[in-house]
């Protein structure tokens, strides 16, 4: 056994809006505190209870544009009037130091990570799916964090995102926070090779 650190593993958790990614991530933080959780940057305004640097880095559109222009974003997307993205530097630093990293991002972002030079081939992509599309609608409408137009946009995008499941290495169905978290914990404990796309 060597004292030099192994390279960390990069995990990407994705899925449609309203599927419960943030809730599962909060439980995973409690159960796997040694995992490094990347914080995304966004140009949207904070929701009640959100903290800058914890939930997101809330930045201006100009600052976000500078980060993209300087190639400091691992992935980025524009959705429902706002920009979202993952700062590249911290992810690469933690992987090089031997720490496993988890990104919680949308499907567009997951695709960009898969194509990222030097990182995409090692990323393990995990799709969090709802028990049904009707249940996803109920969750999205019920959370009441956005106006009707924004909710409709998310539902339209979710139909396309649900069709992307075959692109991911694993699919977990979020029937409960406990079961989804347990599934993620099991994946984190597996050998570092991505699984075949049809594996659940």
UniProtKB/TrEMBL annotation:
Catalytic reaction(s) noted: GMP + ATP = GDP + ADP
Lineage of origin: Bacteria, Bacillati, Actinomycetota, Actinomycetes, Nakamurellales
GO CC annotation terms, alphabetical: cytosol
Localization per record: Cytoplasm
GO MF term set: ATP binding; GMP kinase activity
Primary residence: cytoplasm
NCBIfam families attached to this UniProt entry: guanyl_kin
Gene it is expressed from: gmk
InterPro entries in alphabetical order: GK/Ca_channel_bsu, Guanylate_kin-like_dom, Guanylate_kinase, Guanylate_kinase_CS, P-loop_NTPase
Protein name: Guanylate kinase
EC number(s) given by UniProt: 2.7.4.8
Keyword Ion transport listed: no
């Amino acid at each position: 056994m060597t004292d030099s650190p192994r390279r960390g593993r990069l995990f990407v958790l994705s899925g449609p809006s309203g599927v419960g990614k943030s809730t599962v991530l909060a439980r995973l933080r409690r159960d796997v505190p040694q995992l490094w959780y990347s914080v995304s940057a966004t140009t949207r305004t904070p929701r009640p209870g959100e903290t800058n640097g914890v939930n997101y880095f809330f930045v201006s559109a100009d600052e976000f544009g500078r980060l993209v222009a300087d190639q400091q974003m691992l992935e980025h997307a524009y959705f429902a009037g706002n920009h979202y993205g993952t700062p590249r530097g911290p992810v690469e630093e933690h992987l090089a130091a031997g720490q496993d990293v988890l990104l919680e991002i949308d499907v567009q972002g997951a695709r960009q990570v898969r194509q990222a030079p030097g990182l995409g081939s090692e990323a393990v992509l995990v799709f969090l799916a709802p028990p049904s599309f009707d249940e996803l609608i109920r969750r999205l409408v019920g959370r009441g964090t956005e106006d009707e137009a924004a909710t409709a946009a998310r539902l339209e995008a979710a139909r396309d995102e649900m069709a992307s499941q075959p692109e991911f290495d694993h699919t977990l169905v979020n029937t409960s926070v406990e079961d989804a978290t347990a599934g993620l914990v099991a994946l984190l404990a597996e050998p570092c090779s991505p699984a075949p796309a049809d594996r659940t």
